[in-house]
Amino acid sequence: MTIKPLIILPDPLLRQVSAPIERVDAELEQLIDDMLETMYEAPGIGLAAIQVGVPRRLLVIDLAKEGEEPAPLVYINPEIIKSSDERSVYEEGCLSIPDYYAEVERPASITVKSIGRDGKETVTEADGLLATCLQHEIDHLNGVLFIDHISRLKREMVIKRFTKAARQKI
Question: Is 94 labelled as part of a ligand binding site?
């Protein structure tokens, strides 16, 4: 397994819409393993393939708490097929926007259709943190960042800060 470098704001790749995955093969299995390793190392609870520079519709999640056995979840070509009218607010962060957190309001529960690591179609009913995490990561696959759900003023300040930081690294 390989820890992959994370794509950080303002990299335009983060705004790219990811392409569907055609088949589960050895290359995809390796990418899944690398993404899980990268997510655990970061550390984070979710990671979309685009965040490691691969514009494909794949995400991994693990909501196990520290000290618990890892419980990785893999979603290939995930699609939200149902959202509740009820809303919930969570403070979100993102490995591609390090050390920035904001409260984001999203549907409280969702239903997601995807393909599992085994190549079989699955349907996941999610609420709470899993629903929020799935929505956050699926947004990545569509070129949307969690800061797109906050006020324009706050979003512009965050983008300006990360753009300035990126220029200073050059």
Answer: yes
